Amino acid sequence: MLGLSAAALAGYLAAIVVLMLTPGPDMMFVLANAARYGARAGVVAALGVAAGEAVHVTAVVCGLAAAISASPVLFTVIRWAGAAYLVLLGVRALRSAGGPAIATDGADARPGRAFLRGLVTNLLNPKMILFSVAFLPQFVSPASGDVTAQLVLLGALFVAVQLTVDIALGVGAGRLAGRLADGRWARRINRICAVAFVALGLRLATSS
Fold first, then answer.
1. Nearest 5°: phi and psi at 147?
2. Domain ranges of the chain
3. Which of 40, 73, 79, 125 has the greatest CB tally within 10 Å of its CB?
4. pLDDT at 3
C-alpha cells in the first residue's frame, strides 16, 4: 500500500490505538457530552473532534503545521487560547453537573453545538499540532513512493481510529447514563470531566 510495509502499518495502527486510549481533552469532551446529553451527542462530539484532527492532518500535508510550531508567538497564542477554552468548558460542566441526568433541551443539547465544540477543542490543542508534525512523518519513507500520498493515508487512518474509539466511548457512556435512572453516574462523570478540563487547561497554560 503506497510502498508502506505491512509491518510499518501495523506498528503505526498499534501506536495510534494506544494514543487514542490515553485520556486527554478530546476524550473528556466526548464523555462529558455523552453523559450529559446522551449517546447521540457523544457521537456528534466525536465527529467534531475527528473533523478537527482532519484539519491538523491537512495542515501537515500542506506544511502549515510546521510553520505554526516554528513560530513561538503564534504557538503561544494558540496555547493560551486552548487553555482558556478548556477551563471554560470545565466551568460550564461544573455549573451543569447538578442538572438532570440526560438533558434534552437548551442550546447546549443541540447536535451542532456538540460538533462545533468538539472541533474547537481539537483545533485549540497546540499539542496536537506538535504531535501531528512529529508523529506522522516518522512513518513516511521517501523511498517508498509519493510522500504526500503517504501522509494522506497515514492521516486518514489516524482520523478513522480516533473516530472509532471516540464513537465507541460516546455511545457506551451515553447508553449507560440513560440506563441509570437516578442520574448519579452521569453527574459524577460530568464532574470528573469538568475537573479534568480545568486541570488540562491549567497544565497547558503553565507548560513550556
1. -65, -40
2. 6-206
3. 125
4. 57
Dihedral in degrees, nearest 10, Cα atoms 59, 40, 199, 71: 10
190: how many CB neighbours lie within 10 A of its CB?
Answer: 24
Residue type, 147: V
The single residue listed with the C-alpha cell 487512518 is 157
- Is residue 162 within 8 Å of 55, Cβ to Cβ? no
CA distances from 166 to 3, 12, 22, 28 (A): 30, 18, 11, 10
Task: Please tell me the distance from the alpha carbon of residue 74 to that of residue 104, in angstroms, as a whole number.
Answer: 39
Average pLDDT, rounded, for the chain:
78
Residue 113 Cα distances to 103, 146, 155, 180, 181, angstroms: 14, 38, 25, 25, 25
Tell me how many helices (H) and strands (E) the chain has.
Answer: 9, 0
Cβ(68)–Cβ(129) below 8 Å = yes
Q: Each residue of 42-88: pLDDT tens digit?
A: 999 999 999 999 998 888 888 866 776 677 787 777 778 877 877 87
